[in-house]
Amino acid sequence: MQWTSVVYGLLMIGSSFCSILGNLLLLLVVSLNQNLQTDTWVLTLSFSLCDLALGVSTIPFGIHNSLFQVKSYPSKSATCKGSAFLFLLLQLASIHSLTWATVDKFTEICFALSYPVIFTSHRAKIILAIVWVYSILNAALPLFGFGSYVYSETKFLCLPSFKPSSIAFNMLFMVLGIIIPIVLMCSMYGYIVHIARNQVRRGTFVCNEDHCFYVPANNYFKSSIVMVTTIVCLLVCWLPYIVICFYETLTGKESPQPASAVATWLVLFTSALNPWIYSMTQTRYRAALRKSLNKIRQMFDYPRKNSLSHCTTIQPRRESNSSLPAPNVPPALQTNNQPQQDLTLV
How distant is the alpha carbon of residue 311 from its chain centre? Predict the structure, then answer.
C-alpha cells in the first residue's frame, strides 16, 4: 500500500536524524570528559558506533526503498546482500554490546566493592572482541548457504529470509542473538529495581568500608522509574519484531504489511533511543553533558570577548590622541606642556 510506504519513509527519516544526532552527542560527551572514559567505556563506544552506523547506512536504504516504491532486488545482488549483512552485523553487535554494558552497570551497583576486580580494561576488551567475532560470523552464515538474505517488500529492507527452509538459522539468530540478550537485560534491570525498593524499606543510610552517608529515598524512586522505562522500551521495540519473525518462520506466510513495517521501524528506532535511555538517564552523563555544553559555549564566546576587549583598548587611545597638541602649535609650547601631561598621568 502506498500510504504505508510513505508513512514508513517519514518515520525512518525521523529515526535516522535522531540516531545520528543522539549518538554523535554521546560520543562528543564521552570524548570531552575524561571521567567517563572508564575501563569499560569501550562497551558504550561500541553500541554507540553501531547505532550511528545504522543511522547513516541501513535506515537511509529503507527510506530510499519505501519512498521510491522499490519492489525487488536480484536474488544475488551485491547491494542486497551487502546491506542485509551490514544490518544483521550492526544489530547483533549493538544489542550484545548493550547487554554487556548493562552487565557492567549491574555489577557496579550490586557488587560495588569487588567491581574493580571483576571488570577490568583487559576483560572489557576481550568481551568486545568476542562480541564482534560472534556478530561477524553470524551475519556471514547466509553468505555461505546457511540461511539466506532476501529483499522483503513489506519491510522495505534486505533481511534474513524468515521461511521454513531457513528455520535453523532463524532460530540461531533470534534465540541467541536477540531473545537471550533481551531477557538478560530485563532481568538485571528488574533485580536493580527490587534492590532499590528494599533499600528504601530498610532505610536511607548506605555504608561502605570508610563511612556511612545519607541517600534520599527520592533517588531510589527516580532510579526505579528509569529502569522500568528501559524495560518497557526494550519490550515494546523488540517484541513485535520477534513475534513476526517467528510467525513467518513457522507458518511460511507473509505478515501484513503495516504490522511488518511498524515492527521493523521499532527495531531500527532503538538506535535513536539507546544513547538516551542507557546513558543520558544517568546523572554522571547529564552532568558531563552540561559541562560539555558550557565548554562549547565558552569556545564561541572567547573570540567575541577578545573583540570587545580590543575595542575597549582602542577607545582610550583615540581620546589621548585627540588631547595631543595640534601640529601648528609652536615647539616651545609643546615642550612646556609636556611635564604637565606627565604629572597628570601619574
Answer: 43
Task: Work out the average pLDDT over 191-209.
Answer: 66
With contact defined as beta carbons under 8 Å apart, do 288 and 33 qualify?
A: yes
Assign 3-class secondary structure to 42-100. Answer: HHHHHHHHHHHHHHHCHHHHHHHHHHCCCCCCCCCCHHHHHHHHHHHHHHHHHHHHHHH
At 117, list the grid cell: 576486580
Q: Give the angle 253-258-263 at the CA atoms, nearest 5°.
A: 85
Model pTM above 0.85: no
The CA–CA distances, whole Å, from 3 to 9, 11, 74, 254, 258 equal 10, 12, 25, 19, 10
Q: pLDDT tens digits, residue range 296-311? A: 788 777 666 666 565 5
* Residue 203, SS3 per DSSP: coil
User: Three cell numbers at 308?
Assistant: 570587545
Q: What is the pLDDT of residues 4-47, one digit of tens each?
A: 788 888 999 999 999 999 999 888 888 888 888 888 889 989 99
Answer yes or no: are the C-beta atoms of 271 and 19 closer than 8 Å.
yes
In angstroms, the CA 239 to CA 325 distance is: 87
